């Protein structure tokens, strides 16, 4: 097996995903930049290479079975294995004014679309990449979640958790639950899987509203992608520690 550590970051052409790729690259990982848009993907690869990151583009639409299969084939050909998978790609879905998704008026097609990317997309990619991850001595999987997926925080009237988001927030709760199920399956193996909350980050995803930079938002995911053997698995983390389910 090559000694070079290999990572794949989905949705890595901009924002938090780009900074996760940059951070892993600065630690010596060869990074696959997963993204749907070819022009943005190649621009991101060029920027990363310009700052010394060993990066390569991975055409990847997490909602498309064939695209995900092709991505796994490409990584096998170019790298032969995978040490870290960061499932970062995600969408909020159509919002009403004020960044609200009213559950009483929610378009079910919006819900389906959000779930297909934020939940089923993670399952598609993770399962397709598992044969490559199992070739690693210390495979790590990170699912980029959100504190709005915390049912504990959402149900606490004294916790400020932002507007009602009846498609996006439940998709992250579902993702958190899936993370636990994967961790249960991987118990007793060398595969560690955790969920990461980046916080409210100023990117185009949030309309550039938020007190945190993309670099700050990437930090927890980078830490979880590089955990030592024996580290936690099946947990949900932010900068300050564990996020309650």
Shape: globular
Instruction: State the secondary-structure class.
Output: alpha/beta
Span of the ends, CA to CA: 37 Å
- Percent of residues in beta strands: 5-15%
The count of strands amounts to: 8
Strand order of the largest sheet: 3-2-1-4-5-6-7-8
Query: What is the helix tally?
Result: 7
Mean pLDDT: 95
Tell me roughly what share of residues is in helical segments: 40-55%
* Estimated radius of gyration: 17 Å
Low-confidence runs? none
What sequence of helices (H) and strands (E) makes up the elements?
Answer: EHEHEHEHEHHEHEE
The largest β sheet comes out as: 8 strands, mixed
Molecular structure report:
There is one protein chain. The chain is of the alpha/beta class. 41% of the residues lie in helices and 15% in strands. The protein is built from seven helices and eight strands; from the N terminus they run βαβαβαβαβααβαββ. It has an eight-stranded mixed sheet with strand order 3-2-1-4-5-6-7-8, sandwiched between helices. A hairpin with a 2-residue loop joins β7 and β8. α1 crosses α7 and α3 packs parallel to α4. It is globular and about 50 Å long. The relative contact order is 0.15.
Gist of the model:
The protein contains 7 helices and 8 strands, in the order βαβαβαβαβααβαββ. It is an alpha/beta fold and 245 residues long.
Which keywords apply here?
eight-stranded mixed sheet; alpha/beta; 245 residues; 8 strands; 41% helix
How does the SSE layout of this entry go?
Layout: E1 6-10, H1 15-26, E2 30-35, H2 38-50, E3 54-59, H3 65-78, E4 84-87, H4 108-133, E5 140-144, H5 151-154, H6 168-186, E6 192-196, H7 214-225, E7 236-238, E8 241-242
Parallel strand pairs: 1-2, 1-4, 2-3, 4-5, 5-6, 6-7
Antiparallel strand pairs: 7-8
Helix pairs in contact: 1-7, 3-4, 4-6
